[in-house]
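Problem statement: downstream parser choked on a complex file, so we are re-checking the raw output for the protoporphyrin IX containing FE run. The parser issue turned out to be on our end (a line-ending mismatch), but while we're here, posting the original submission so the record is complete.
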Amino acid sequence: MGITFRKETFRDDFTFKNSPEHIRRFPFPFHEDAYMYAVNIEPHVVGPKGSVLENLIDVDEHYVAEMQDRALVLAEDPLRCQSLPHMTLAGWDLLELLMEQQALGYPEHFTLTRDGDRWRWINRPLGIDDTFTFGDTSTLPYGPMEYITRQSQGDFCILDQRDGNLWMDAGMVTTQADWSLDFDIGMNFFEWHAPVPLAHEKGIFVRALKFLTNIQQGKPARRLNWTMTINPRLDTSPENYHKWGPDRATVTPENVGDKVHLRVELQSFWRLPRSNGIVFPIRCYLIKMDELVTQPKWARRLHRVIRDLPDELANYKGLTRYRPALVEWLSKLDDGSATSPGFGPD
Amino acid sequence: MSTGTTKLDVVVSDVVPVNDLVTRFHFRRRDGELLPTFSGGAHVVVEMRDGERTRLNPYSLMGSPLDTREYTISVRRDDVGRGGSLFMHRNVRPGLEMVVSYPVNLFSLDRRARKHLMLAGGIGITPFMAQTAQLAAEGGNFELHYTCRTASLGTYADVLRERYDRRVRLYHDDLDERIELDRLLSTQPLGTHLYVCGPAGMINWVRDRAASLGWPAETVHFEHFAAPQPGLPFDVTLAVSGKTIRVDEQQSLLEAIEAAGVDPPYLCRGGVCGQCETNVVSYDGKFIHNDHWLSEEDHRSGCKIMPCVSRFEGRSLVLER
Ligand code: HEM
Ligand code: FES
């Protein structure tokens, strides 16, 4: 029967919201009542039906609206999509991966047919039906990475692997939590992670890089990351800080439930077969407090996590200004009772 | 978190003797599907079931990455080695069902290079077979210098000459032909990357000369599977799983740990990837470190070992496994 795609916006009037089914499948990122950085990497294998892990590349009710928002961002700022010259082959690898995975998971919405190098791609939600020659950039309206990531939810970084390090040499980044591809392009794993507090000292990045450089074909891995965003805005980029930064000052005890959103990134890591690069999809999920607290366990746990979060992390994630109002609001939903282990709602 | 290798069920579709020492093996998928795409320089780990034992040897894929109907590897018979190559030569026939890993690439092309300068010694030619096919298909700029003992042992020299003509230079030991390495290395255009695969002595020589002639380390790439060294048997205690095992002379420490039913992480099984790094709890004796992963300091410290290639001689060894 397929997904019913919502008509909604991530800017101006902010009509984005989650249906009840999407609230239940939200990838709540806290398995216990506290949070600290760790090497939280695990194999990216298919999860339960009805969860965001039902397919390895998730497509949901926000797909069409997100793709429209991406097109608006790109029209204003083409530098959100960049690919250094040696990364074109990796772009083809990514095109193959995303077409295969989307067609596999959602055959009613996407179809891929291959006849040697002649490929036909049908994307029904966006009304696309293109035939092209795999490997021949002149047969597509954009480069391969841009073409397919205009049709895939989430941001994408493609990393070149050289000298035992990963280099951010290509990407499509329009839904980011306050970092910039244009700034990070060409940097290595340690350079682009430099602003992150506490994790370097804990040796997290050294170990994470060792794992990532060994990721194998057919064995993707994943981790969850999270932050918070005021209003359901996808494009919280440094380039547009003037548009969203001031929103943080608008949070009041009355509007917390509507304005404050938990923003969870399902990040995965995949070895690309032809280029030997790695692609890093960053799939962003938003949920407003009013929706989140419909699951009492999540409300209690989020209260404790935010209340006890180390200041360095709160500052880095940009929560400091509205943290008191949020903690106060959440505290009313926390009766102090125990929360069950694991991520899911009770 | 399991980092073991994803596996492919294959059948041997052809076995082709190439010369006195080298035989080529072709694999197809048992279900008739295409094999996973790979990149030039990748290897697979071939599982050999030899009676009670399972041997796991890495071999470079030498076919064109553009054709994934089959994988091909070439195996040089090593009469004094651990027996993996002898098993391949003696026991593997068309129709045999085998298991190989997904491709892993630890010898990848640097796609920023303006020119790829490749140096091969002996059976070290195999990864270059795939890399040259990949580069030729996309119009890449490469030059291959290939040293072999004699013309008749110059595995694929004829094929390469025919495919790439003057982009391939051959050197025969028996005719006293030698790569003029210093001249070669000092006359390359800016932006050239250097790749070397062959015996350890050759790799060290090339890396050494390149460093002296001012090549930045990140432009020098080498593939060096330290073939697991046979050695004396020794006993090991695995502290975490509470087992004491014997590593016999024809077995690597990693294989012995696996045979005891413990599932340690690994990828390359050749001492280069770092996955199998294991902490030493205590020891009385001497380590024989054969890996290319740990630092010299790590080697001296006696705190770590790479069980895929390294061994031990002495009274007792306790590992954190
Ligand atoms: C190759 C894959 C990866 C890419 C492209 C990537 C990229 C990034 C970027 C761009 C940032 C923002 C830095 C800034 O403030 O400018 C970031 C933050 C971070 N990354 Fe990564 N990362 C990758 C893998 C990992 C892995 C494997 C880990 C840990 C196991 C990790 C841990 C973190 C942490 C803890 C933060 C701070 C996030 C927060 O508190 O909101 N990253 N990453
Ligand atoms: S398995 Fe790669 S170093 Fe041992």
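For whoever reads this later: Helices of chain B lie at 84-91, 126-137, 157-164, 181-186, 200-212, 253-259, 296-301.
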